[in-house]
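Subject: mismatched residue count in predicted assembly?

I count 229 residues in my input, but I want to confirm that the predicted structure covers every chain. Input:
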Amino acid sequence: EAGVVQSPRYKIIEKKQPVAFWCNPISGHNTLYWYRQNLGQGPELLIRYENEEAVDDSQLPKDRFSAERLKGVDSTLKIQPAELGDSAVYLCASRAGGSYNEQFFGPGTRLTVL
Amino acid sequence: DQQVKQNSPSLSVQEGRISILNCDYTNSMFDYFLWYKKYPAEGPTFLISISSIKDKNEDGRFTVFLNKSAKHLSLHIVPSQPGDSAVYFCAASEDSGGSNYKLTFGKGTLLTVNP
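Triage response: the counts match. Full output below for your records.
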């Protein structure tokens, strides 16, 4: 079974530039999460999707961040414009429905904003 | 305000000995707890979990203990192996399987197992 796929793995951009991250979850997983992990910290939830619906985006900085999950499968997270403080690892995770099922994480995209 | 706390940034143990990683939480609504392991340049990988209705869960060399009254859980690795060297994250959820299932993570503990 293929795991969660993310691309790109690394991205370096100048501040004020836009950037986008892509995630393909495990087949059949209806729930998809985007996390941000700052250096020395644990992952922090940005947004959670149930199928194509964003059911929890309370931690997403909506002035510059946006996300979509078309057709309830792949998802894209966008930052426009990027700021220096956005440098972090952006992790995508997916989960099957039902109780006590863990989240499976992708390898993440390491973003560096110069 | 951190709801999940891992107060030891790092831990070093000898191969074959026991590793004990600790985690404290403040939110009494948490009912499901997980440990994830993370190698460099990889995403976190699920290791073991425990429901709040239990006080112990064991899987091979890994055992998680939960003390609800103290709001404390620990991960025991016996015996420790060099391949266990990684960052270990403690995570908790208020809703183990319902519509509000989401994880709150601690900052992680870097475990180094020396040969």
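Residues 1 and 111 of chain A are 27 Å apart (CA to CA). Marking this ticket as 'not a bug'.
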